[in-house]
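Re-run requested by the PI after the first attempt was lost when the workstation crashed. Everything re-entered from the original request form. Ligand of interest: iron/sulfur cluster.
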Amino acid sequence: MTETLVDATNHQRISQLGERVLSGGKISRDEALFLFNLEDSADVFDLLSWANRIREHFKGNKIHLCSIVNAKAGACSENCSFCAQSSFYQTGAPKYGFVDPEPVAEAGEEAQKNGVTAVGLVAAWKGLNEGPMLDEICARVAEMKAAGKTRPDVSLGIIKSQKVADRLKEAGVECYGHNLESSRRFFPQTCTTHTFEDRLQTISHLKKAGIKICSGGIIGMGETREDRCDLAFELKAIGANVVPVNILNPIPGTPFEKNPPLPVLEILKTIACFRFILPRQEIMIAGGRTVNLRDAQSMIFMAGASALMVGNYLTTLNQPVEKDLQMLKDLGLDPSWDSHGFSDQEETGCGCGKTGCEPEVVAV
Ligand code: SF4
């Protein structure tokens, strides 16, 4: 990116789009691509300031905090090219079977102590079928729900049957993590052992069961800006409630081990573009934050992020929770996100900005 004064034409166009989103309107794919393709740092900072206004308008100063527990680690049958837990690659990541109740209960207590809204049980496997493992997971979720410390979320891979989704809902799962990873076009370059359609089908079962959707992707895998833009529109179409943006942290031994890091401004610009496309969603910055953004981590909120993954990631370390909480305090942001069931994401119209307009029905 080059450094120049704000381009007056770009400034005007960014402002028009920002005003439209603020008043409940939407931007088109072409308009979003114009934002993704901004190059000058002055224009990018202009974009960030609008993304910040949009975040404040729709989300206030509340920041939704989540953490995860690796409930079953390593030896995964899938070949996701970014993942340390795939059995296709030698990465030295830990391997163990499904965890006992104690570590899960401890994670819930730790989360409550730090004001973390949700703890997600994450399992490294292809997916979940009916059987003893589903029973065990439902038991863990029910225990977490009964303890009342945090919202019990899960991320358990592909679900092929509606019954499984319904059982999870009955056990108390409110939100299910299932990333689309990247655009439909780029997905086959990240994984060939399952498909983008498998992921959409899983999300469809979850939505029918009444479970909220946490779905986002990873940037920095070699995808284009168009791919990032199309991922954001796919996430809008599926009605994702929480949108995790992970930034690739290349793991030695995986096919993406030598991927060059994305420039910091490119990462912040991507977050801002997501905020323009998904103004009401929780945009959560997750894996790869510390290593890729370094001292610029606090800029994610200026770029429109309204949620943060805290604590360690599945196979890599994050900065200490205390440091994140201090960062929020320093910025006047409030981590006490109340459990309002994501009702602030409901649109009151089609986005045309006219009062009295009926909500748009989004198909999955
Ligand atoms: S991302 Fe999930 S499905 Fe893919 S290899 Fe890793 S653990 Fe398995």
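Saved to the shared folder this time. The longest strand covers residues 64-72.
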